[in-house]
Design brief:
single chain, mainly alpha
Length: 149
Amino acid sequence: MYLSFYKKLFQPVYIIPYLGIIPFLLIIIDINFIHLFDIPLIKKFIIFYTLIIFSFVGAMRWNFSNNISAFKIIYGFLPSLISTMLIFLQLFAFNNNIIIIFIIFSLSSQLIIDFVISNFYRDEKFFFHYVRLPVTVIIMIFLCYLTFV
């Protein structure tokens, strides 16, 4: 039982999302110890990087079958649309902290919807509980920390 659990957990599809946390960890190290980059530049980078992650998570719902539901189409497209709008706000020098708070809200909403979806599809439950939930919570904690820096 335990061996099959760890075999499943150490597949690339479960490891790669955790590697996406590395830039957040490097930025925490820079903010607290190295001070190589200034905070506004770090916030801009994190906004763009998190929006890429947000779009990728939405794209996980895309399915190229002929019988895709309207919900999956909208739910898969909506993160890209929201990301595009937030990129425009960033380019027009909108307040970074407000953008970050909106990203936290968007990630939270996406996480809640994915939780509901994972309860309907048994094969998604493992991925949600051991990858999606922890990675997203870590990212949101970091974003909360960054708004107060």
